[in-house]
Amino acid sequence: MNNTSCPQQDKKLFEHTILPALHILGFIVGLNGNRWGLNTLRRNWRKLGNINIFVLNLGLADILYLLTLPFLIVYHLKRNKWIFGEGFCLVTRFCFNLNLYCSIGFLTCISVYRYLSIVHPMRSMGRLTTTHSVIISVVVWILVGAQSLPDMFYQKTFQNGSKCFDSTSNEHMESYLNYSIIWPWKVMA
Prior knowledge:
Elements: H1 5-43, H2 45-48, H3 51-66, H4 69-77, H5 86-119, H6 121-124, H7 130-148, E1 157-158, E2 163-164, H8 173-188
Antiparallel strand pairs: 1-2
C-alpha cells in the first residue's frame, strides 16, 4: 500500500475545492460585512467618536485584501496556475500583508483608546482628538507599508509564471527567512 497517495489527494482536494470555496465565502461575507459596517459608520459618524477613524481604516484594509480574493479563487480553481503575471502576484501578496498588519495595528489602536477612555477617563478627556487618530492612522499605514515593501523584491511566481507563492521559492527561502526574521527588529531599532 502506498502511504503517500492519501495525503497528496487530501492536499489537492483542499487546494482545488475547499480553499476556493472558503475564498468565495470569505469574499461574499467580507465584502457585504465591510459594506454594512462602513455604511453604519457613515450614518453614525458623529455619535461614535474618535475611534471611527481606526474603524474606517480597518474596513479599508479589509476591502483592499478582499478585492484580491477573486484572483486567488481563479488561481486555485485553475489547479494553481497563476495567469495574471508576476507584478500582480506581488500586489496580491503585498495586499495580504497590508491587510494583516494594518488590521493588527488598527485593532491595537482601538484597544488602547478604549483602555484610556475606561481606565483613565479624566486624563484622556479632550486629549484623544480626531487629529491624533488621523495622524496615528497615517503612521500605521506608513510603518506597515515600509515593513511589507521589501517583500515585493522577492520573486513570487515560478514555473514560467504559473505558480504564485506566498513567500518565495526554495532557492530564495534562506534569504527570505533572514529578511522575515531580521526586518522587524531593524524597523524597531
